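Reply to thread "Modeling small-molecule complexes from scratch"

Following up on the discussion above, here's a worked example others can learn from. I took a protein sequence and the SMILES for zinc ion and predicted the complex. Inputs first:
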Amino acid sequence: MTARDRYSRKLECSQCGHTGFAEVSESDERRAGNRDFRIDEMPAGFAAEFPSQDPSKYMVRCQCGHKFRFEQKTAYPPGGEPRR
Ligand SMILES: [Zn+2]
């Protein structure tokens, strides 16, 4: 059985400034190539526009109608996202 990493991440709409914390989980079997990413709890005001097992493809829609990717590469320094 595969363990899963759970963490929360702040979502922020660049259009209206709405923010919230999403509770997400993904497989820690990263070498398998499939992170099996999942948003377990979407914060109020945000909705899943296009669910994906890849957080860089997962599209979130804000209450204002703005759509953006859950994982935006530009939001993190080179070397990847911070992990616990
Ligand atoms: Zn918005």
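What I'd highlight from this example: Residues 13, 15-16, 18, 62, 64, 66 surround zinc ion (CB under 6 Å). Residues 7 and 83 are 9 Å apart (CA to CA). Questions welcome below.
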